[in-house]
Amino acid sequence: MKNSINALRVLTMDEINEANSGHPGVVLGFAPVAYVLFKEHLKVTPNKADWFNRDRFVLASGHASSMLYSLLHLKGFDVSMKDLKNFRKLNSKTPGHPEFGHTEGVDSTSGPLGQGIAMAAGMALAEEFLRNKFNKDNLKLVDHYTFVECGDGDLQEGVTLEALQFIGRQKLNKLIILFDSNKVQLDGPVANAGGFPNAKAFFTSLGFNYMEIKNVENEKAVSKAIAKAKESDLPTIIECHTVIGFGSEVAGTCKAHGAPLGAELTYKLRETLKYHKLPFKVSKAVYNDYRVNNEANYQEYLKWEETLKEYAKKFPKEYKEFERVLNNDYELDPSAFKDFTYETEATRKTVGKFLNVASKELPCLMAGSADLTASTMVKGADGAFDVDNRLGRNINFGVREHSMGAIANGMTLHNLRVMTGAFFVFSDYMKPAIRMAALMNIPTVFVFTHDSIAVGEDGPTHEPIEQLAGLRAIPNVDVFRPADAREAVEVLKFACKNKTNPVVIVLTRQNLPLLSAVSETELLSGAIVRQKFADSVGTLVATGSEVGLALDAAKLINKHVNVVEITSTRRFDQNPDKAKIINRNLPSMFVEMASPFGLKAYADEVYAINRFGASANANVVIPYFGFTKEEVAKSFTKLIKK
To answer: Is 128 a catalytic site residue?
Structure first.
C-alpha cells in the first residue's frame, strides 16, 4: 500500500522538522522495506511487547531512529504522536538514537556504527542455542528470527567484518540482514571510501546467502525476498538498492543524510509522493494497514503461553531451567561451592575453577575467549558451540575482541549469561561494547586477565597501564580487581546473579596469597577494611594484587597502619560511610600498578606508574617499578613524617 509507505516517509519528516535535527535520508529510501518487514514478517505484538519468542529487530543505523519510532507508533506500541513530536527533546521517549529499556519495542541500543550487526549475531546465537536446548516434541518455546537494518557505514566498520566472519562461520541462518544499499554516505559517494563493487562475491565468501532487491518500490519483491531468506540454511544478507532521500529534491546526494528537509522541501515531497495529509496526521486506513497482523501475532503469543503450560507438565525439570532464563535468574546456590578449594594462585586460574562449578549449576551460562582460552581460563562447558554442536557453551570468538564484546551483549539481551575472556590490555578493543552494555543496563560479564606489568616478558604492548582508569570512568560499570582467590569467587558469583549493569573483572597472571575471607556485603560496599587501628598513623589503600603488597608493607612500618582495599571505585563513591572507611584526616597513600589518574580522590598520595611497562620476567619488572614491600613502606614512611 503506497499510501502507508508514504505515510511513514512523511510522518518521519515531520518528526525531524519538529526537532530541527535528524537523518531523513534512510527512511525516504528504506521505507518500503521497513513497511513490508513490520507489516508482514516481523512476529511482534504491542499487546505483549516483551514476549520472549518475538522476532528481534536491530536498527544498526541508529541515526535513523525517527523511522523506528514512526514504525512503532504506526504498529501500535507505546509511542504516541506526542512522543514523535518530542523527538530528540530532553527526557522524551524518542531520543536521538534508540535506547533499549527506554522505548517500548526497541530491542537494543544502537548508534555507534558496527555494534548493531554484532549484537544481532549474539541474539541469533542465543536463539539457536536455546531452541536446540529446550524445544521438544514439537513444543517450540524458542523459534524466531533476528532482523537487522544496516547501511554502508555499518559495513565499513571493522567490528562488523569480525561479526560477519563469525556469523558466516557459525551458520546463524535465522539472522537476516537488510542492507540499505544507497551508495551514499555523509562525505559523498560510498565509492570514494571503498564500497562493494562485487557484493555477492564478498558476502558469499563469508558464508552468507546473498540476495538483492533491485527495486524496493516493488513491495511484492521485497516480501518475497524476506520470505525466501527465512527458508535458507545460511545467514542471509539482502542488498536493498535504495535511493537516499527518495522523492525529495536532495535525493541521491549526501545532503539527504543528516539535515532536516525543512517545511518547504517537505511540502514539495508531499506533492511528489501525492501524500497530502497535514503534519502529524495519519489516516485510520494507514493505522489499520500497519496493524493488520497484530491480532494474529497476539494469538501466536497466547498459543505460546499454552505451549509453556503443556511443556511444564511434560518436562518439569527443563521447564524450571527455561523459567530461570525467562527471569534472567543466574543466582548460584551457595552450597555449590562447599567443596571449592581456595589456594594461593593466580586469579585467572580461579575463574577457570569457578566456571567448572558454576556451569554445572547454571545450564545457560556461556563463556568464551578471544583465542586465549588457555591463558584466560575463561571457557564454557559442553564443548564448543558450533554447527555440529548447538549445545556447546564455549564460544570460540577467535581473535575478534571488538565483536566479541558486542556479540556477548546480544546474548545478554537474549537472557543468557555470558562471560568473555581477553588480556586486560585488549579491553581497549572492547570499550565500545562495555560502554553499550552500561548504557543498556545489561549484565554482560567481561573478564580480563594479565592485569598489570606482571605480564612480564611480553612487554609494554601487553602490559596495561591506563586501562583501569579508563574503564572506571564509564558510568554504570563495576570494575572489580579481586585481591585473592576467595574474593575472585565472590565477585564471579555476584556477576552471575547481577541483573542491572555490566561487570568487569580484572584478574592476575601471577599467584596471589590467600587473605582473610570477605562477605558479599563488604565486596559490594566498594571497600574492605583489611586492618584498622584506633591509634593508626595513616592508611594504605590498594586494589587487586597490591592489597597483599600493602599488608606486607604495613608490617615493615613500626607503627599501626590501616589497610583498605577498594573493590569497586563506583560502589565506594556511592558508599555513605566512605569517610569512615578512609579517614582523610590521616595521611593516606593509594598503591596500584597502573596509571595514577583519578586515584587522588581516595588518598593524599598515589604510588603508581606514569609510563609504559618494560619487557622482562615479572620478578624483575615488578621491583624495577618499585612495587616491593620495602619501597612501598619507605614511600609511606616519608608521607607520615611530613
So the answer is: no
